[in-house]
Amino acid sequence: MTQNFWNLDELKFQLNSHPLIKGWIINEENTHRRERYFLLEKETLATDQDRNVRSRTISLKIFVRLSKPGRQGEISKKFFTTLNLRDQIDTAVDAALQTDHQTWELPKEFPTALPQVMTTDPDMAEDLEGVTEKLTARISASVQQTRPSRFNSAELFLSVHHRELHLSNGLTHRSSQSRIYTEAAYSFEKLHPNGTLTSDEYLSSQWSVQLGQLPIEKIFDEAAHRAEHSLDVVKPTSGQYSVLIDSEVISTLLNGYIMQLWASNAYHGLPFIQKNQALIPDAQGDLLTILLDPSLPYGADTAVVSQEGLPQKPLKLVEQNQVIETATHKQFADYLGLTPTTVRGNLVIQPGHLSHQELTQSAPQVIEILQFSGLFADPNTGTFSSEIRLAKLYDNQNGKVSYLKGGSLSGSIRENFRGLKLSKSITQRAHFSTEQFQGQGYSGPEYALISAVSIVG
Predict the structure, then answer these.
(1) d(Cα 342, Cα 403) in Å, to the nearest integer?
(2) How many domains would you assign to the chain?
(3) pLDDT tens for each residue of 241-256
(4) Are residues 258 and 146 in the same domain?
(5) What is the 3-state secondary structure (H, E, C) of 261-330?
(6) Which of 238, 293, 357, 386 allows an S-S link to 375, with CB 3.0 to 4.6 Å?
(7) 3 falls within a domain
(8) According to the model, what pLDDT value does residue 435 have?
């Protein structure tokens, strides 16, 4: 049994009594996580691994006084209750003293009467084990369907995160969030006329916050269906194409690109798009209207306060391609003499007017990306590139549809989004990573058509 040597009250007391520490932010997270890994055993779904994990993490950011006027030291570190508290504080202070930042202050007042937002699936909050069993049953039913492709493996992760935010100005804020991840892998074998046998695997996955957002059956159907076509492919012919991307790619590209609307970019000398400038230069297609919404029900980044303790409200960043607001943390508001604004939230984009079929018929040849091998996107330049894992070519000149694999795609948001066409169908997406505390949320068009994208076969 793990022994705890200190608690949060002791941590706060020692931070407040330290002569060099001028302020601090504590994040405590208690997580209940269920993990299941599945495989096929005697043509029946079997559990390969089954884990029930409870964990606690404490992350601390401290601000220390420096001898230089208008300067302070800052450091972020994880603290462990099983290690000596004073030693950890002394180590953090020593590290913070080696840094040199412009001074800024946490808010003098903290919000009251905060709105209620939906961040945690009620069934998961009440009975995580029961939900795990129900989702396992749905996975089992999907696996038992007879298909040309073969089921290989699947994963199911469910977690509920209970959080406490403590600031040295006296704010304490409690919140929670649920997360679900499902992954399905299918393979397909093909016997060639010369007697050789080839095979390939296709994997589909998706994150969500709420059970109603998780289309388990669709994920398994998609992986199985696309695996069947993974060998019936050709490399794309080099050239420039109109390319159809889905909500996952839209979210990845635009969640990164709109960081150029953050005051932190202006302060650090990174690419920054000011108010009244165009988000996409010379845009002529569907003009983007973008909202940063921290109130979106079951969004990946739904929150009522920022990490600096300021209330978060929906903030319209872009109206018809024109930037109208700057997202500004308290820190950079102090640096630049600005007013803090919302910095947490989900990317919400107004939809277009076209169906999926209309989008695929919008050019002589349209390539629909079904999956990238690994999308690389640079938020500072807006450029992106990847190898094509699987795609469909709609040749509207001869009415044929074929599958593609391989070749590389590269483009730029500032150029290829000029003639943007958005679907009228909308969807909600979520993405989480172990490297970031907050998730990446999206609500908007299910598909987008971008033009003149360079593809090398």
Answers:
(1) 43
(2) 2
(3) 999 999 999 999 999 9
(4) no
(5) HEHHHHHHCCCCCCCCCECCCCCCCCCCCEEEECCCCCCCCCCCECCCCCECCCEEEEECCEECCCECCH
(6) 386
(7) no
(8) 72
Amino acid at the residue 19: P
- Based on the fold, state whether residues 199 and 240 are members of the same structural domain: no
Q: What CATH number corresponds to the domain at position 130?
A: 3.30.2290.10
Backbone angles phi, psi at 265, to 5 degrees: -65, -40
Mean pLDDT of the chain: 95
For residue 434, pLDDT over 90 is answered with: no
Rounded percentage of the chain residues whose pLDDT exceeds 90:
92
Say yes or no: 269 and 403 in one domain: yes
Establish if 331 belongs to a structural domain.
yes
40 and 153 in a single domain? The answer is yes
pLDDT tens, 69-98?
Answer: 999 999 999 999 999 999 999 999 999 999
Q: What is the chain's Cα-based Rg?
A: 25
Q: Do both 46 and 128 map to the same domain?
A: yes
- Distance of alpha carbon 115 from alpha carbon 113, whole angstroms: 6
Residue 36: strand pairing partners: 50, 156
Query: Measuring CA to CA, which residue among 431, 173, 209 is closest to residue 307?
Result: 173
pLDDT over 80 at 1, yes or no: no
Q: Which of the listed residues 215, 231, 247 is the one where a domain comes to its end?
A: 231
- Check whether residue 293 and residue 176 sit in a common domain: no
Contacts (Cβ under 8 Å, ≥6 apart) of 98: 73
Domain span including residue 216: 8-231
What's the distance, CA 218 to chain centroid?
20
The reply to whether 449 falls in a domain is yes
| Per-residue pLDDT tens digits for 219-234 | 999 999 999 999 999 9
